[in-house]
């Protein structure tokens, strides 16, 4: 029986540097975005497990005996066995939930990931108790900001905690708490399994950022969290221009094959920017000098030009950079490009009036804009009373 009402949150992510070059073995830097997904956990009706995801229109409830029977079907040889998210297991989950084969809508994938993680975790660690789970997010879906990974990280932390696989580190009177390194590693491994259900073959970067927060370096499949990084203010702008990551990646590869002598030095330069930026970020906490910010701004400018050379720019992103430049701010695309999102660095001496003017001009272009931070904490446990009024209001409305 689970008896406490608590909340879990996990951050989204942006790529700071290394887009597209990372596919070809170069370094990328991913950073936690302080727009978060929140999961509220509270005791539920006896013998039932409920989940509400109002952002994608999901409200489902299942009885415990039905879930145990389904767990037996997908777990194979019995309790203690971890069912891998293979076709056979996922087909059984789709049949149980009434999800059509091949359905890829966010509500279908979110429900599938929830059922898989619930049953796979309970098969290994014991039954999930009767709880009500409500998930709400500040992250837009489908914008390349790690919304599905933040969801998977929150689910993994909550389910592992109620099953007793990890501790409940929040003491009475505390507002927030985090798990041990060993527990975070377990959370991350299960969140990756949830991401596999949603994306098939994810890199593992998004769930790692959601788990540990801060910044991490990714190269050739190896993920290394940076030890100490500053929290930087940014504007995050969604151009709302849809794009296909697959098409953009293919276009970059085609250009490299066509002009290797020209394009390979560009990739090497992007790699150097990522590594130089890592050095600056790691130096900043010990020496918080304003001189670091012009260097970071130059990295933004140079990398944005490189990404245009790779062919992943877009007129909407050019407009974003022009608008922010008119306010003496520096921007670059983040993620796949071809539209999507861009980030704008806000040095500490940026006046509130300049930020507000830039936001108004960006919104006048039809873009969506948030003032937020990068380098945010990873998955965190909260007392519900400590959550901001905005989050509490959103959860109450849900």
TrEMBL record:
Q: Record keywords: Calcium included?
A: no
From its record, what is one biological process in GO terms?
isopentenyl diphosphate biosynthetic process, mevalonate pathway
Q: Which Gene3D superfamilies match?
A: 3.30.230.10, GHMP kinase, C-terminal domain (3.30.70.890)
Name all GHMP kinase C-terminal domain ranges.
Answer: 303-358
Keyword Chloroplast listed? The answer is no
Molecular function per GO? ATP binding; metal ion binding; mevalonate kinase activity
Q: Where mainly found?
A: cytoplasm
User: Which cofactor(s) does the record list?
Assistant: Mg(2+)
Which ranges carry the GHMP kinase N-terminal domain? Answer: 118-209
Q: Which PANTHER family match?
A: MEVALONATE KINASE (PTHR43290)
**How is this protein organized at the quaternary level?**
Homodimer.
Annotated function: Catalyzes the phosphorylation of mevalonate to mevalonate 5-phosphate, a key step in isoprenoid and cholesterol biosynthesis.
User: What is this protein called in UniProt?
Assistant: Mevalonate kinase
Species annotation: Melanocharis versteri (Fan-tailed berrypecker)
Q: What is the lineage of its organism?
A: Eukaryota, Metazoa, Chordata, Craniata, Vertebrata
């Amino acid at each position: 029986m689970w008896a406490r009402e608590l909340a879990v949150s996990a951050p989204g992510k942006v790529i700071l540097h290394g887009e597209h070059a990372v596919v070809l073995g170069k370094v990328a830097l991913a950073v936690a975005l302080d727009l978060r997904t929140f999961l509220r956990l509270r005791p539920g009706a006896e013998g039932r497990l409920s989940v509400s995801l109002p952002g994608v229109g999901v409200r489902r409830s299942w009885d415990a005996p039905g879930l145990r029977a389904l767990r037996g079907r997908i777990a194979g040889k019995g309790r203690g066995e971890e069912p891998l998210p293979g076709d056979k297991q996922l087909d059984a989950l789709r049949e149980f939930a009434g999800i059509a084969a091949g359905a890829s809508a966010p509500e279908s994938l979110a429900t599938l990931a929830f059922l898989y993680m619930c049953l796979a975790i309970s098969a290994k660690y014991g039954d999930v108790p009767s709880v009500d789970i409500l998930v709400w997010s500040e992250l837009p879906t489908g914008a390349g900001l790690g919304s599905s990974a933040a969801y998977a990280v929150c689910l993994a932390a909550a389910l592992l905690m109620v099953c007793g696989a990890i501790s409940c580190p929040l003491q009475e009177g505390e507002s927030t708490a985090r798990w041990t390194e060993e527990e975070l590693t377990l959370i991350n491994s299960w969140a990756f399994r949830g991401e596999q259900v949603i994306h098939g073959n994810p890199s593992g970067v998004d769930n790692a950022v959601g788990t540990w927060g801060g910044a991490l370096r990714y190269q050739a499949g190896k993920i290394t969290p940076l030890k100490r990084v500053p929290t930087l203010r940014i504007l995050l702008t969604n151009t709302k221009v849809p794009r296909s990551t697959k098409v953009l990646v293919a276009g970059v590869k085609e250009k490299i094959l066509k002009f290797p002598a020209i394009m390979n030095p560009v990739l090497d330069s992007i790699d150097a920017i990522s590594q130089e930026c890592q050095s600056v970020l790691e130096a900043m906490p010990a020496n918080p000098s304003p001189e670091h910010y012009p260097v970071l701004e130059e990295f933004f400018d140079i990398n944005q030009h490189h990404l245009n050379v790779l062919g992943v720019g877009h007129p909407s992103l050019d407009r974003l950079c022009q608008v922010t430049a008119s306010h003496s701010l520096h921007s670059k695309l983040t993620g796949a490009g071809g539209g999507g999102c861009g980030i704008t660095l806000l040095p500490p001496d940026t006046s509130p009036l300049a930020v507000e003017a830039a936001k108004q001009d960006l919104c006048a272009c039809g873009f969506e804009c948030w003032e937020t931070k990068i380098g945010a904490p990873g998955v965190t446990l909260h007392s519900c009373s400590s959550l901001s009024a905005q989050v509490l209001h959103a959860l109450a409305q849900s």
